[in-house]
Here is the input.
Amino acid sequence: MTARSGRRLCAALFLLGGLAAAPAVDATPRPLPYTYVYETLPAGEAEIELYTDLTPLRLVDAAAAPGMHLVPQYQVEIEYGLTDRLELGLYLAYAPTDFSGYLYAPHTTEGSGVKQRLRYRFGEAGQWPVDSAVYGELAENDHELEFEGKVILQRRVGAFRLAANAWAEAEYEWAGNEKALVLNPTAGAVLEKWVTVQPGIEYWMHGEYVNGTGWVIKPTHYVGPTVMLQLGKVWWSSGFYFRASGLHTPAVGSGDPLGAVWARTIVGVNY
Here is the structure.
């Protein structure tokens, strides 16, 4: 190791140590990338969260040549505590892959656009047998209008935090007047034995039902490990999910447009 690289390593370790030693803040970290937990930001507190989703999907181009592509989705969320129990969230979502030049294209769970949501928690943590909150969201993106609702449930059992979201969306396409019901339930468990590192496991499902057509995307289940790192005002949560029906890539034109694996990572900063 050169003297210059040694100095860089020492500087990085010093920075990480400083973040870890930073005073505790009223952040609302997401130990499970898909599952919202019960806590909300206190009044006047703010947080920014950066999401990245990646999944390998099969595409067929205009020359009818199939190929695998790593398809990304990005979101930026700004959270703000309106009261100690009511939280506002504003999102900017971006799905950069253009499927217009393909004969067959898969499905992504987000479109490019904006979202606005409110999250309200009932009571104080531990006051009810199950900590409960509700969540309502409106989204306007490049192909549809969405209304989303969640019931958020959480309970701590020893060193474990258990959480689940009953999650559904009503979607209205700008073109074609198509209406769809989307189901996205999630659940997971997190080991909170350590503050800095919190491992867990999470399940989520995605399915879309279109009026008059039926299931255009049959309920598809994913499960996988998660881990969250907390360093003072910064937290980083990641999950890598495997399709429960197997790791095979669906055949082109099979009507099965979701991938065999899915990854999500979120970086949050409290300020």
About this structure: DSSP finds one helix and 14 strands in the chain.
